[in-house]
Amino acid sequence: MGLPVCYRAIRVALSLTLLTLFLSGCIGYRQTLEQVGSMARDGEYQQALKYLEESRLAASSKDRLLYLMEKGELLNLLGEYRQSHLALQEADDLTEELVTRSVSRETLSFIVNDSTIPYRGEDYESVYLNYYKALNFVALGEFEAAAVEARRVDEKLTWYFDLYGGKNSYREDAFLRFLTGLIYEAYGDLGNAQVAYRRSLNAYRKQHDLYRLTTPHALWKRLLQVSDQLGYRDEHLGYLEQAPAGLNWQQEGESLLVVLLDRGQIPPKQEAGLLVPTNRLQPIKVSVPVLGPVVRPYGQVEIRLDGMKKMGIETVCNLDAIARRSLEDKHGRILLKEAARAVAKEALVRRSEDQFGAAAGAVVRVVSILTANADLRSWSLLPSRIDMLLLPLRAGAHQVEVALGSKVVSKQVTVGKGQVAFIHERFFH
Asked: Angle 174-186/190-206 helices, nearest 10 degrees?
């Protein structure tokens, strides 16, 4: 066997070995997330956490962020709020660290694909780390710390706006502004609460068509109630003119209960690709990530306060729509990168043909096509939408039931005069 033939054989073996390892890694994280999701949907949060901790995902350096996001949400669902915060805080720190990638990792990803480098998350995933961090602090009664997390959202959205030169659609989050206002109210800062409500109203109006959401009646009620309490007469009268007709904004009760319902799951990413012919008639594969079909949560959540059924649950956040538009924003950048990557791979194929013959070139081309995969990693446990119900109530102890299908959660809530209490529940359908 001549040296060139031997060299070609070694290169082929090495290429196929690397390809096998690469593909097995991708399959591994997908299987892990599918199993974790299946357990979570069955309410087996502890088993899901144990499976996640024992999986290869937990030991993967390039998927560390993915692991921490899933872990942090599972711990939140288990009521382990301190531990959840630690996992989510590490994830939050990691997203900042991963913004600047090392030259060596960028080079590897350029040759193969983006799945070979550490996952740094989607913009909305980074922002919703702060949502769950805020919920952890709310559950612990630490409202000032929760407001810090809400303010961090503003910093992130401003940073992404500057990063993309204002060309990104996800530059504001109406729901998180609304939630920020409620958190401010919870520790008595009505002035900042009203500022947050104003920003929420502005965002809902601007993003009505983008995310298919109307301004919630609950937000109008807070704008009217708080402006009245603060004595902002002109502002209050302005909201009265703009609010939906017949809206009963006057709060019947001394305190307020906020019920947050996370519904469904954002569908996993799928690959959309096409084969592009070259001037030598061999195709080049270009791939981009897209979300699977919309899976709408089904069934109506029923809420009872002291045995009385309460109406008026509203969808305040459409995370599915946010995720889809965010991916669409990226497609142009992804296609440019993929085109440059395809050119580089084609050059590698030609060099292999010139140096080692047609057979070697064919092998490199096969590897090139098989590794032209989109990065399909995502935070799988995120809800597809968030619903809310605000319930005015008198000071004292109350029994609250939240039910959907066979799942019934019963909680006792005790509030003082003028206080704001929160209940957060997760339904995967």
From this structure: 170
User: Are 212 and 126 in the same domain?
Assistant: yes
Question: Does 183 score more than 90 pLDDT?
Answer: yes
**What does the block give as tokens for 156?**
């992130």
Report pLDDT digits (tens) over 207-224.
998 998 999 999 999 999
**Dihedral, CA atoms, 84, 86, 89, 94, nearest 10 degrees?**
-110
Dist CA 383 CA 426 (whole Å) = 8
- For residue 177, the enclosing domain spans 122-250
CA distance linking residue 85 with residue 334, whole number of Å = 33
Paired with 273 in beta bridges are: 287
Looking at the fold, whether 420 and 394 belong to one and the same domain comes out as yes
CATH number at residue 153: 1.25.40.10
Round the CA-based radius of gyration of the chain to a whole number and report it. 25
End-to-end CA distance of the chain: 62
Is the pTM here over 0.70, yes or no? yes
Q: Can you tell me the distance from the alpha carbon of 192 to that of 183, in angstroms, rounded to the nearest whole number?
A: 10
